[in-house]
């Protein structure tokens, strides 16, 4: 999983956001090998002179302490998915768009570069941001949740995460994506009784027994919910089905893994209760349900003044975040959180991942305007 | 798969059928390693002096040439499933039954021992059986069909298989089991369209699309057919289902493997046509059907005089064979074939496999009576 460690790159935080994005992209940091890049980020932030800096594993934390009435937490992960022959970065013009190509451009080193530009502006002695700032550059976002650097900070340095608003610079194409869906994964196990398929009446076919579950899924009417003016669409899907012993055996078990993506007006318990209700007939007939994965959603919090002010600063209406992101880690502490970044979410994890050059400066500018503003 | 080769055992064909069964069982011959046992069988048959003997791979062929009006083919496989800690053999009394335990006792070295006893009686100079006899001791019955020794004989030495009746000494508990079911395996593939499960409405869930197929299977009313007085029960079963890409992806394919076990009044083409008709709605909706395995059944042929005479010799009414066996290889050449052996079919392939001692001599006696009889 880990790529070999590279020497720490030099990061010049006075360079423009495109130059800085390229410097970050050209320093490979596949999950588990973020160390050299984290070293470079830590070093550059410490040199600024206006930030308290702390290192937790390969996560770098930095913040101003100016006693401003509001504190904004900016978070971005440093790691990328495995490189797909798409490094070092290159610039190309395609479909009339100038683009920076390379692993991690959209997800999310362009966002990290914006954060570093803000640190260079507001994290120096004498700077006067309207809001206090916390920067979280974290590791291991693209891998199993237990390794997630932001999760580790939440467990070990929770105080660093408190603020009035958290902004994750995940790719959102320059539009605020509010909150996030919750996700629940359950395994429904249909029991049966094994028998030779030539004498199948001696057995009970568990795969046939899954007919009702699939019928329920096929007929499920997913809810659409408007929260703070944002539309969340739910979805209940079988993401895996498996059953079978051998080509001549009536299967004694069929397992259906179901993923429920739900709007953030339900909490985790309510989501599970809903799924149990949907499959009530099957459960009454002997099917078992096991929760294998559960992550609550996050409300968009657009009615919070700090959030509304930020949406206004972007000049674009917000939309619902469809998908689970680390904003939920802030939401779990009651901190409004949103996603906003210059990358394109549809390109994440793809070999042709790129970021539009004309998305970079507007993102930096919107955040500068917001952090300089007087409404705080 | 292959066990290490063992030295060829000594086989004394003048010993009683129990002693001979034990000698065969205690010579391990898991599929692919039948060589030493085939050597022993071949050597013992050649010593008898009244048989033409030929070796094809690890299959041993032997026959009388006495110009009798009818020829009976006796066939038994020498191989066993893998040993399950149940060798060497042992005798025990359980539930008031004296039993010989061990891998291959029922399936089907007890049957092979009966064949060897018949060879010792009728395959010596001066013997006067009422019918000519062909013995086929073959290899690799318990593994994929392409390795089956009887199949190889059918391809390379077809003349050896001709006769008026073929008797497979597979375990049938001492009752004639007539004919065999056919078996057809098809894979139904439901197409879909991949999407992130958080935006599932952009995709088409192939697992949900299998609901109709499973519903059809769950509601399928299997036919029961009487042929020559024997009752055949059919069955249509999903033996495997698989679908799923990842825990957060709407699956774009779901594959259901269906096994149709059918009565021998249908041929292979009719069986496939029936399955296509059963799933007509799904096929019309874009599901594809691929035949992966097809073996026709065998009619019981009880109206044939040679078959009726044998059933009479066993003193027990015949019943239908539920399951596919190598009798179909004879049926494909128009040769009536049946299953009749001293083993217990319910114990085949089990660690506690055994044969009742009181089943051995009656099987030998019934065959002696039949082969000595004057009705031929």
Overview of the structural elements:
Two copies of one chain form a homodimer. By secondary structure, chain A is an alpha+beta fold. Chain A has helices spanning about 15-25, 35-50, 105-120, 150-155, 205-210, 210-220, 270-280, 280-285, 305-315, 325-330, 360-370, and strands at about 50-55, 60-65, 70-75, 90-95, 95-100, 130-140, 165-170, 175-180, 180-190, 195, 225, 230-235, 235-245, 250, 255-260, 290-295, 320, 335-340, 355. Chain A contains eleven helices and 19 strands. Chain A has an eight-stranded mixed sheet with strand order 1-2-6-3-7-18-8-17, with helices on both faces. Chain A has a four-stranded antiparallel sheet with strand order 13-15-9-16.
Q: How do the strands line up in the largest sheet of chain A?
A: 1-2-6-3-7-18-8-17
Q: DSSP strand (E) fraction of chain A?
A: 25-35%
The separation of the N and C termini of chain A measures 44 Å
Taking the sheet with the most strands of chain A, its summary is:
8 strands, mixed
Q: How many strand segments of chain A? A: 19
Quickly describe the structure:
2 copies of one chain form a homodimer. Chain A has 11 helices and 19 strands.
Helix-strand blueprint:
The structure is a homodimer.
Chain A: H1 17-25, H2 35-48, E1 52-56, E2 59-63, E3 71-77, E4 90-94, E5 97-101, H3 105-122, E6 132-138, H4 149-156, E7 165-168, E8 177-178, E9 182-191, E10 195-196, H5 206-209, H6 211-219, E11 224-227, E12 230-233, E13 235-244, E14 249-250, E15 253-262, H7 268-278, H8 280-284, E16 288-295, H9 305-314, E17 319-320, H10 327-331, E18 337-339, E19 354-356, H11 360-372
Helix pairs in contact in A: 1-3, 3-11, 9-11
């Amino acid at each position: 999983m880990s790529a070999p460690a590279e020497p720490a790159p030099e990061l010049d935080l006075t360079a423009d956001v495109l130059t800085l994005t390229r410097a970050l992209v050209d320093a490979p940091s596949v999950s588990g090998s973020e160390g050299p890049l984290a070293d470079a980020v830590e070093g550059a932030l410490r040199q600024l002179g206006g930030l308290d800096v702390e290192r937790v594993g390969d996560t770098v934390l930095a913040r101003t302490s100016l006693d401003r009435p509001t504190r904004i937490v900016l978070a971005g992960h440093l790691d990328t998915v495995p490189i797909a022959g798409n490094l070092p970065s290159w610039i190309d013009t395609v479909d009339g768009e100038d683009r920076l190509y390379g692993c991690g451009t959209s997800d999310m080193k362009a966002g990290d570069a914006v954060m570093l530009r803000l640190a260079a502006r507001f994290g120096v002695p004498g700077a006067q941001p309207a809001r206090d700032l916390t920067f979280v550059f974290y590791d291991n976002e693209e891998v199993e949740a237990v390794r997630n650097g932001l999760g580790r900070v939440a467990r070990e340095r929770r105080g660093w995460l408190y603020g009035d608003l958290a902004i994750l610079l995940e790719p959102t194409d320059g539009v605020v994506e509010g909150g996030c869906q919750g996700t629940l994964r359950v395994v429904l196990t249909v029991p049966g009784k094994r028998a030779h398929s030539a004498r199948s009446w001696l057995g009970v076919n568990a795969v046939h027994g899954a007919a009702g579950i699939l019928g329920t899924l096929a007929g499920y009417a997913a809810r659409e919910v408007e929260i703070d003016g944002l539309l969340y669409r739910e979805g209940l899907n079988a993401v895996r089905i498996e059953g079978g012993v051998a080509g001549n055996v009536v299967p004694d078990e069929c397992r259906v893994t179901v993923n429920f993506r739900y709007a953030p007006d339900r909490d985790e318990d309510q989501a599970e209760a809903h799924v149990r209700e949907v499959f009530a007939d099957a459960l009454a007939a002997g099917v078992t349900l096991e929760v294998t994965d559960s992550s609550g959603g996050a409300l968009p919090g657009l009615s919070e003044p700090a959030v509304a002010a930020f949406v206004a600063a972007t000049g674009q209406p917000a939309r619902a975040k469809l998908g689970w992101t680390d904003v939920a880690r802030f939401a779990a502490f009651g901190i409004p959180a949103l996603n906003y970044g210059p990358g394109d979410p549809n390109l994440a994890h793809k070999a042709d991942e790129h970021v539009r050059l004309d998305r970079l400066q507007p993102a930096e500018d919107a955040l500068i305007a917001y952090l300089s503003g007087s409404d705080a």
